[in-house]
Amino acid sequence: MWGNDTMTKQKFIPRLKEVYEKKIVPELMKKFGYKNIFQVPKIVKIVVSMGVNESKENIKSLDNASEELAQITGQKPLIRRAKKAISNFKLKKGVPIGLKVTLRGERMYNFLEKLIFIALPKIRDFKGLNPKAFDQKGNYNLGITEQYIFPEINIEKSERVRGMNISFVTTATTDNEARELLSLIGIPFKKN
């Protein structure tokens, strides 16, 4: 069916990716004086991780958390295991303690749109994100205290509140470039 010359398969491009390519790239080139389009910073990947501490006693909680994270990101999470035993935390080596999802491409842009336009505005008394949470290499880390801000999560079926860490990995060489990139994309930073 798709091999026919008269019918062409049209590819869906996320709206945020289109905005990046048509508006943000020229603006960043002008502001920072880049000579080449490949110098312009971009988001390479978004890593969403969730700690599931209670999985030591109840392994079913890991399955529930995995299902919720898969609904939020649209991708099955990897189970992260303890690398070494720590007796103070009653932790044995190899016990599953967390989940991680690495998003790239279209899924990354779809998750970013959902985060910016749907989830973050749902946070109570939201005044913006911390503009100082960069790691000196152009990457940004964001902590969310509850997963209920995402529309896919059903509060009645969820067993408990779980937080998550979202890391934006960019090609920017300085925090200033990365901050400008993320603010142009739509990340709402606090005004000083």
List the helices and strands and how they pair.
Layout: H1 15-32, E1 43-51, H2 59-73, E2 78-81, E3 96-103, H3 105-119, E4 140-144, E5 164-170, H4 175-185
Antiparallel strand pairs: 1-3, 1-5, 2-3, 4-5
Helix pairs in contact: 1-4
What is the tally of beta strands?
5
Oligomer: single chain
Please tally the helical runs, counting DSSP H or I stretches of 4 or more residues.
Answer: 4
Q: H/E element string?
A: HEHEEHEEH
How many angstroms does the end-to-end distance come to?
Answer: 57 Å
Q: Which CATH architecture is right?
A: 2-Layer Sandwich
Secondary structure: helix percent? 25-40%
Fold-level CATH name: 50s Ribosomal Protein L5, Chain: A
Mean pLDDT: 82
Rounded radius of gyration (Å): 19 Å
Outline the biggest β-sheet: 5 strands, antiparallel
Structural class of the secondary elements?
Answer: alpha+beta
How many domain modules? 1
